[in-house]
Amino acid sequence: MGIVDKAKNAAEDAIGKAKEVVGDVTDNSDLEAEGKKDQGVSGAKKVGENIKDKLS
């Protein structure tokens, strides 16, 4: 996984965590769910990149 991809995934994960916390604090379930989704997408990308790296 390239450094740029790692940075993008880390940023996406951090944004997702922030959305989840803000959604929880403000009782905004839609924002909280969006944050969890963003974290899941980031995790899936990380797994995909790791698999791609191992196959290369």
TrEMBL record:
Q: Which residues form the CsbD-like domain?
A: 5-55
Q: Which InterPro entries match?
A: CsbD, YjbJ_sf
In residue numbers, the region (Disordered) covers 29-56
Q: Which domain of life is it from?
A: Bacteria
According to the record, the signal peptide region is none
Coiled-coil positions: none
Q: Which Gene3D superfamilies match?
A: YjbJ
Biased composition, class Basic and acidic residues, residue ranges: 46-56
Protein family according to the UniProt entry: Belongs to the UPF0337 (CsbD) family.
Q: This protein is called what?
A: CsbD-like
